[in-house]
Amino acid sequence: MGRTVTVATCALNQWALDFDGNLARIFKSKGAARLLGYGCSDHYYESDTLLHSFEVLAKLLESPATQDIICDVGMPVMCRNVRYNCRVIFLNKKILLIRPKMILANAGNYRELRWFTPWSRARRVEEYFLPRMIQEVTGQETVPFGDAVLATKDTCLGSEICEELWAPNSPHIEMGLDGVEIFTNSSGSHHVLRKAHTRVDLVNSATAKNGGIYILANQKGCDGDRLYYDGCAMISMNGDTIAQGSQFSLNDVEVLVATLDLEDVRSYRAEISSRNLVASKVNSYPRIKVNFALSCSDDVCVSTCEPIKWRYYSPEEEISLGPACWLWDYLRRSNQAGFLLPLSGGIDSSATACIVYSMCRQVCLAVKNGRVLADVRRIVYDETYTPTDSRELCGRIFTTCYMASKNSSQDTYNRAKLLAEQIGSYHVNLNIDVAVKAIVGIFRAVMGRSPQFRVYGGSSRENLALQNVQARIRMVLAYLFAQLSHWARGMPGGLLVLGSANVDESLRGYLTKYDCSSADINPIGGISKTDLRCFIQYCMENFQLTALGSIMSAPPTAELEPLADGQVSQTDEEDMGMTYTELSVYGKLRKITKTGPYSMFCKLINMWKEIFTPREVASKVKHFFRMYSVNRHKMTTLTPAYHAENYSPEDNRFDLRPFLYNTAWTWQFRESSGSHSYDLLGF
């Protein structure tokens, strides 16, 4: 009697609508995958997307590479004029089942209900009439469509899809009670700092309570937007991890294989009496009979896999690897020749530079392991080039630029220069004073008045305008140098401009609209200042970048106001009226805990009772909400940033709120509770 089965899962770096590339990666994996990539968004509305999906499916069905393997691929399918997100499961040129998704992801970054309808008929199937192009390949006119499981000669298989694993009523619960022994799940779960353990725990707990084998496939890479899908394909049995895929990798295709004993599942379940009592009363699933066995009749001597311990990354390692992989995908898929970064010598731009350097390190390692060389040669326009040193590669594809003004200090100049030398970037120093003088001169010629900084007697409005002119000129120069610096050096190609505003500054609006925060992409836009400081420390210790020591110890400053005796007179936290630590707290309460001004005040008077009086807390809450709401309009033009925090204020699809507020918040600040009135306006 056969008892051992060999199962496989994969993590593929699919790209939205890249049908040719996605098909090639599926062929290479021979596993579970998505035909389209994940982030097709409103392209799902297009009939072309459905057509091309079926064309790719036909190629897969015909291919010798998919024979004698039960394959599971994802694609949109329209049934009775309703569009569903589906898994198509097939074997030897025959479609066994089209399984529509029953629980859709519709929170945070996901809007599946915009494009798809959930299948609402549990344990029901109907006939689906196949398109003629598929009929010609399979010889089938109709196939089962709906909520069913597959019964092979030796076991029973069920399929979950992505969000269904995260739901409180996950299908694997009822499937397992009905005798399904192997569960598959093809997921599009994106990276967030400190999230990996949640996904792993969900999979392992699914098999711990009910027994069984769970096979998770997950997208990897930049699919074409702000998210980075972080792989972590895994195989779990009876509550233990059996195989772990990489979380961050430049490898487009990763396949995990494990050989397991079905009798281990059966004996595990047999002694859980509470499970068996419930299982005896469960409603049965429709079973699609499959004339195929996963096991061999003579497999007594076949060795099986043992449990392993999952290896988690620290947040600093995640920052080093995740955004770097995202940058690499963006670079190679945008057909650009590298990056340009305005490097100020502060923590944020230095952290961005370190992420690019980490990317170069990973690229060199991947080349050493026989991968990504073709992409590297295409990016540098050299078919003979083979990178072996990350600093040398950095010099080819990464340009840093220190844009000084009369308000810049010698300290930041030195820090930027030394860091550029240590990572190997091509570094440019320039001075923007001539351009600033010209812009202000135009205003003076037209209006007849010349604005002054506050220290020279100017008003707050004049002071802010003069700071903004400097910041916006830096943005214009960044794009000029990105387009032409390679041309001036006799090299082909243009550069992508990198932004370096962190998530806390975006939340507070502590940035100039259309300044250097305006760029093509921003690898740190979803990362807090606190985490970036820890990341800088990590780079000092692991990349031997000693220049980061002085950057860590210096107070964050924009250097947009005049120096005092050659020293910086302006600091970020003083300008903002709050610390970066406080900003992170405000951000998490506002977005994750979902508090308005009054609820935030109620929580903070307890959280901060040892350090601030209720009056001081009220003042801080009012100041945050005023500054947040005054500056919310800046989020509409925020540079696309790597999504790494669940309190991101990104306006595109994650944090949907007005950008024109009544910034007085009169009712909210006046709110009271019971007999204890806390009038925030009074405070």
Automatic annotation (TrEMBL):
Supply the alphabetized keyword list: ATP-binding, Ligase, NAD, Nucleotide-binding
**What GO CC terms are in its UniProt record?**
cytosol
Which pathway is it part of? Cofactor biosynthesis; NAD(+) biosynthesis; NAD(+) from deamido-NAD(+) (L-Gln route): step 1/1
Q: How does it assemble?
A: Homohexamer.
Query: Which family would the database say this protein is a member of?
Result: In the C-terminal section; belongs to the NAD synthetase family.
Q: Which InterPro entries match?
A: C-N_Hydrolase, C-N_Hydrolase_sf, Gln-dep_NAD_synthase, NAD/GMP_synthase, NAD_synthase, Rossmann-like_a/b/a_fold
What is the top-level taxon of the source organism?
Answer: Eukaryota
What Enzyme Commission number(s) does the record list for this chain? Answer: 6.3.5.1
CN hydrolase domain location is 5-262
Name the UniProt record assigns to this protein: Glutamine-dependent NAD(+) synthetase
Q: Which GO terms describe its molecular function?
A: ATP binding; glutaminase activity; NAD+ synthase (glutamine-hydrolyzing) activity
The alphabetized list of GO BP terms reads:
'de novo' NAD+ biosynthetic process from L-tryptophan
Which CDD domains does this entry report, sorted A to Z? GAT_Gln-NAD-synth (cd07570), NAD_synthase (cd00553)
NAD as a keyword of this entry, yes or no, is yes
